[in-house]
């Protein structure tokens, strides 16, 4: 009847005349329109701890498959162009939304209307040019809004009307140009506390332009604007405590403040880069004379000495920052008036020389920052600071340290000397630093410690020696550091650790030894036996290698009973690696073990019998291939398991492991193709599953996994929509979740239950009916026989509307019009029914088919390959054959337009069945005997329909 292109999309709406055809048709169409349900398998994002993370996925629109329970949603660094009203419709619990670094130029009205819980919104680095009316409607709980680095030029009067609880607003790096736009922003924000307007091309600041705004601002940033005139004639900022008016404008700013009390509460002032005549600068500083605590004067090009002298006369000012001021030296009188300063930051200058008495007047100085300068040694001026507690000399040119460099600094608590060129230490270097707690010596060239830590620094809690050139740690090297808690020795060249290298470090809780040259022989000495309080030990990227799994005589961590985290990594060797069976002996409190990328080929069944509390296990990037069935038995508390790139052929090793608490499983890039239902059932607490990079089999073996992945709402199957089929070949390259597994799912127990129930009910009904209504049934039976006889008689005598109904595919229509129609209707005078000509418009298609078949004496099926592929043609021949078998009448004529071998008819069971019982005509085999073909067809049409009549042989040649 059709080619399936348009008609196949139609759905039946009317009833069918024939009850049996109605049932067949409904079954066929119902199956074709059912689609799979999808569960917690997101197409583009991942969810972790109620946060949806969709960073760098090249998304052009907001995904709509995010669970409604998430509270955080990160869509930063994508390609989203527009925010639509339906994008966040179901995310009513969302509190944080990050849209940073997209291409958003339009936000539809009502896009945020349902985000009633949202507190933080980030729209930085997009392409918004205008904020439309009511664009933020619904965000009544919002407290923080960032719209930095857009192209905003205009703000509608009601844009911010809903943001009545906003406390922080950043509109930096836009094009607001004037305070009129700012007033529209502020007029609906009575609780706004901090406003950032950096780099908005504001040319003037007139307080009268903001007088209609009700402001409770505590902080405002107007820096990087070319403000030529700053005039305040009314106290519009009565609660202002932090004020940034720094500028890169080359011409001086005109400063006019009508009342000395207008800025009287400012405690933190930043005038970095501001150009102003000395008189106006003095006026400004006088306005904050009674409240100023912190002053920043970075990148000041003129009058720096005068500004320092003026600011240091403010009695309350205690913190002074002078970065990027190109100070070549610090003279003895530069800070002579700064007697109240307690924090001084001189970093990022070009200081080479500091006079010995440069800080002599800073008797109260506690924090001194001299980093990122060009100092060749520790300046002697730092020794004359009796109150100094923090000294930062990092990133200089210091090449040596002397015994007197830190003399008399008995109150120093933090010392930073990293990123210098120090080759070695001395035993007398830290002798006066009795109170030192933090010492940073990383990224130097230290190759020898020379007993610098054996006797002093009893209060030191953190020591950074990473990034140096240490090759060995001698016995008792850290003996004097009784309070040390954190020791960083990574990225050195340490080959040797003596048995008592860490003696005295009884309070050490964290030590990093990664990226050194430690070997198995080093661990054989049991160098960690003194670290009884150690909690975290990192030994990744060393030379530790075992080629046996037998027990060690002295396990390396046997005395670290409080250790909670252990990481080992050996990626510099190739070949066979193993772990001794008792390698982890003694680690009874271990919570995390990381042994990735060690080329391990075997793990003994008792490897983890010593770690009953283990919660996180990472053995990825090894070559284990198979786990012993009892390997995970001791790990009853395991919550996270990483087994990616381990050459695993199956996950069945987890079935009997009883990992009932496992929540996170990552098994990327392995060799298994099937995830059995038993594996999933063995992990009842699983909430996150990552199986990326495996080659799956798309057949019924994975039906259980697919059904679970599509319908489970608790476990997230990460990136499941990109899992690819590798077998069978016909599915190769297709995605796993698009495999239709419904035919594989058969609940035998349920079917047996239903069948048994039906049989029992039928038996009960039959028994009841026979006992109470058997005579009524006998009477009804004879009435039914009479009605049936009458119906058959009427059907036999009823005239037909057509002689034949022609069933064909639209691709074969030219043959029907040019050959069949002229012969049968034109020459032989038969009345034919054709769908495109005789079907009643507006009538359900299945009704037309039924009426045509039952309203015609015969049905002629014009069969071709396209006919067999058409869904509607299939329904037509099913209906005709149903009439043939039901009424036992010779009503079906088969005409083959092309030769179709038997093996191509194998998928069409009904067609092969008809060929065994019905003769047929073959147009290709007619050849030069076309007239004989039409004569045979005419004789078939003349034949009566009685079942007792002899069939007329319609074949011209032998059947295919």
Automatic annotation (TrEMBL):
One of its GO terms (cellular component) is plasma membrane. Keywords: Glycoprotein, Immunity, Inflammatory response, Innate immunity, Leucine-rich repeat, Membrane, Receptor, Repeat, Signal, Transmembrane, Transmembrane helix. GO terms for biological process: inflammatory response; innate immune response; signal transduction. InterPro entries: Cys-rich_flank_reg_C, Leu-rich_rpt, Leu-rich_rpt_typical-subtyp, LRR_dom_sf, TIR_dom, Toll_tir_struct_dom_sf. It is found in: Membrane. The keyword Repeat applies. SMART domains: LRR_SD22, LRR_TYP, LRRCT, TIR. The chain crosses the membrane at residues 21-41, 748-770. It is a single-pass type I membrane protein. It comes from the Eukaryota. Residues 800-941 form the TIR domain. GO terms for molecular function: signaling receptor activity. Belongs to the Toll-like receptor family. This is Toll-like receptor 13. It comes from Stegastes partitus (bicolor damselfish).
């Amino acid at each position: 009847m059709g080619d399936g292109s348009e008609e196949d999309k139609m759905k039946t709406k009317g009833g069918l005349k024939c009850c049996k055809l109605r049932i067949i048709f409904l079954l066929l169409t119902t199956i074709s329109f059912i689609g799979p349900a999808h569960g917690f398998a997101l197409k583009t994002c991942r969810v972790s701890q109620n946060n949806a993370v969709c960073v760098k996925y090249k998304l052009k629109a907001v995904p709509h498959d995010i669970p409604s329970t998430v509270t955080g949603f990160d869509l930063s660094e994508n390609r989203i162009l527009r925010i639509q009203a339906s994008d966040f419709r179901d995310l009513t619990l969302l509190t944080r939304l990050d849209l940073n670094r997209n291409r958003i130029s339009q936000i539809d009205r009502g896009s945020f209307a349902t985000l009633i819980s949202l507190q933080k919104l980030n729209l930085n680095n997009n392409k918004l040019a205008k904020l439309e009316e009511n664009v933020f409607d619904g965000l009544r709980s919002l407290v923080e809004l960032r719209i930095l680095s857009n192209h905003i030029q205009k703000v509608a009067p009601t844009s911010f009307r809903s943001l009545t609880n906003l406390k922080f607003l950043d509109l930096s790096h836009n094009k607001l140009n004037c305070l009129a736009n700012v007033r529209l922003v502020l007029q609906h924000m009575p609780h706004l506390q901090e406003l950032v307007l950096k780099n908005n091309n504001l040319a003037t600041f007139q307080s009268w332009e903001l007088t209609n705004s009700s402001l409770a601002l505590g902080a405002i940033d107007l820096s990087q604007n070319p403000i030529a005139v700053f005039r305040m004639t009314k106290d519009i900022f009565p609660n202002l405590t932090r004020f940034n008016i720094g500028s890169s404008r080359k011409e001086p700013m005109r400063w006019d403040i009508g009342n000395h009390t207008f800025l009287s509460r400012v405690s933190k002032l930043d005038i970095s880069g501001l150009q102003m005549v000395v008189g106006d600068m003095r006026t400004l500083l006088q306005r904050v004379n009674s409240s100023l605590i912190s002053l920043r004067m970075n990148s000041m090009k003129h009058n720096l000495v005068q500004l320092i002298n003026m600011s240091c006369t403010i009695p309350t000012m205690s913190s002074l920052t002078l970065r990027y001021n190109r100070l070549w030296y610090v003279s003895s009188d530069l800070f002579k008036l700064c007697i109240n300063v307690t924090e001084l930051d001189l970093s990022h200058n070009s200081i080479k020389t500091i006079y010995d008495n440069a800080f002599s007047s800073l008797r109260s100085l506690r924090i001194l920052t001299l980093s990122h300068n060009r100092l060749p040694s520790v300046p002697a001026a730092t020794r004359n600071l009796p109150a100094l507690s923090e000294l930062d000399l990092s990133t200089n040119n210091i090449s040596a340290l002397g015994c007197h460099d830190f003399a008399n600094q008995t109150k120093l608590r933090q010392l930073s000397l990293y990123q210098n060129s120090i080759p070695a230490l001395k035993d007398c270097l830290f002798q006066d630093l009795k109170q030192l707690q933090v010492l940073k010596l990383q990224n130097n060239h230290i190759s020898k410690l020379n007993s610098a830590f054996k006797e002093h620094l009893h209060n030191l809690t953190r020591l950074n020696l990473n990034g140096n050139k240490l090759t060995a740690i001698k016995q008792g090297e850290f003996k004097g550091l009784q309070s040390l808690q954190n020791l960083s020795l990574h990225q050195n060249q340490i080959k040797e650790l003596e048995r008592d290298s860490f003696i005295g470090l009884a309070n050490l809780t964290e030590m990093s030894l990664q990226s050194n040259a430690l070997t198995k022989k080093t661990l054989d000495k049991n160098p960690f036996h003194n670290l009884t309080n150690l909690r975290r030990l990192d030994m990744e990227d060393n030379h530790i290698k075992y080629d046996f799994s037998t027990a060690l005589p002295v396990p390396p961590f046997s005395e670290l009973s409080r250790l909670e985290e252990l990481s080992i990594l050996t990626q510099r060797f190739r070949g066979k690696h193993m772990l001794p069976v008792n390698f982890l002996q003694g680690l009874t409190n271990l919570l995390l073990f990381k042994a990735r990328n060690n080329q391990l080929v075997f793990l003994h069944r008792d490897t983890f019998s010593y770690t009953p509390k283990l919660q996180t296990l990472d053995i990825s990037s090894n070559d284990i291939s198979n786990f012993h069935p009892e390997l995970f038995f001791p790990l009853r508390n395991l919550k996270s398991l990483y087994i990616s790139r381990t050459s695993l052929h199956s996950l069945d090793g987890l079935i009997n492991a009883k990992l009932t608490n496992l929540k996170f499983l990552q098994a990327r890039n392995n060799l298994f193709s099937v995830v059995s239902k038993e594996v999933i059932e063995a992990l009842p607490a699983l909430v996150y599953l990552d199986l990326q990079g495996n080659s799956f089999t798309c057949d019924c073996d994975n039906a259980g996994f697919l059904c679970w992945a599509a319908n489970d709402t608790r476990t997230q199957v990460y990136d499941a929509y990109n899992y690819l089929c590798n077998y069978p070949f016909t599915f190769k390259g297709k995605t796993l979740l698009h495999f239709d597994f419904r035919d594989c799912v058969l609940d035998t127990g349920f079917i047996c239950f239903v069948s048994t129930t039906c049989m029992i009910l039928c038996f009960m009904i039959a028994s009841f009916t026979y006992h109470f209504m058997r005579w009524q049934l006998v009477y009804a039976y004879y009435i039914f026989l009479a009605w049936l006889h009458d119906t058959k008689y009427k059907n036999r005598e009823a005239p037909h509307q057509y002689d034949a109904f022609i069933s064909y595919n639209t691709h074969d229509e030219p043959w029907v019009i040019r050959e069949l129609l002229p012969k049968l209707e034109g020459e032989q005078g038969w009345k034919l029914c054709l769908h495109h000509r005789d079907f009643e418009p507006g009538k359900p298609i299945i009704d037309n088919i039924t009426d045509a078949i039952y309203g015609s004496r015969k049905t002629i099926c014009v069969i071709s390959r396209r006919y067999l592929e058409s869904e509607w043609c299939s329904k037509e021949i099913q209906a005709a054959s149903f009439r043939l078998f039901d009424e036992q009448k010779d009503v079906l004529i088969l005409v083959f337009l092309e030769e179709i071998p038997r093996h191509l008819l194998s998928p069409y069971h009904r067609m092969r069945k008809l060929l065994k019982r019905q003769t047929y005509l073959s147009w290709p085999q007619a050849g030069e005997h076309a007239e004989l073909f039409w004569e045979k067809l005419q004789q078939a049409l003349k034949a009566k329909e009685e079942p007792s009549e002899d069939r007329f042989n319609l074949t011209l040649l032998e059947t295919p």
